[in-house]
Amino acid sequence: MKMSYRPKITSVTKASSNDKVGLYEFIIKTADGTQCRAFYSRNPEWKMTNISRLLKTPCPVCRKDFICKCMEAYTADFEDQMIGDQWIEKAIAE
């Protein structure tokens, strides 16, 4: 069941990368204070391979204070913003 949660990205930071194989790790901060770690592959085009919530605040969906997989349900929302709002390009340029 998908709740009415709508993640809104406010910043993206490149945490690590392997340019040779096209793998990237980004830290995504959202408007509600949630932080996520997202892994991307850029070959042949940018694609999120995994996303997980960093355990700094309780999950905005299930309110658990430990590991959950809620953010995976919003992969499309995150990807739309990461690509559409050019967050990847901004994070890589820093």
How does this model look, in words?
The chain is α+β, with helices and mostly antiparallel strands and 94 residues long. 18% of the residues lie in helices and 34% in strands. The chain has one domain (9-93). The protein has helices at residues 75-84, 87-93, and strands at 9-18, 23-30, 35-41, 47-53. A four-stranded antiparallel β-sheet has the order 1-2-3-4, covered by helices on one side. The radius of gyration is 13 Å and the shape is globular.
Give the arrangement of secondary structure elements.
Blueprint lengths: L8 E10 L4 E8 L4 E7 L5 E7 L21 H10 L2 H7 L1
Antiparallel strand pairs: 1-2, 2-3, 3-4
Order of helices and strands: EEEEHH
Total domains: 1
Extract low-pLDDT stretches: none
Number of distinct beta strands: 4
Number of helices: 2
The share of residues in extended strands comes to 25-35%
Distance between the amino and carboxyl termini: 37 Å
The order of strands across the largest sheet is 1-2-3-4
Radius of gyration in whole Å, from Cα? 13 Å
Largest sheet: 4 strands, antiparallel
Overall pLDDT score:
93
Shape: globular
Percent helix: 10-25%
* Helix-and-strand structural type: alpha+beta
Task: Summarize this structure as a short list of keywords or feature phrases.
94 residues, alpha+beta, four-stranded antiparallel sheet, 2 helices
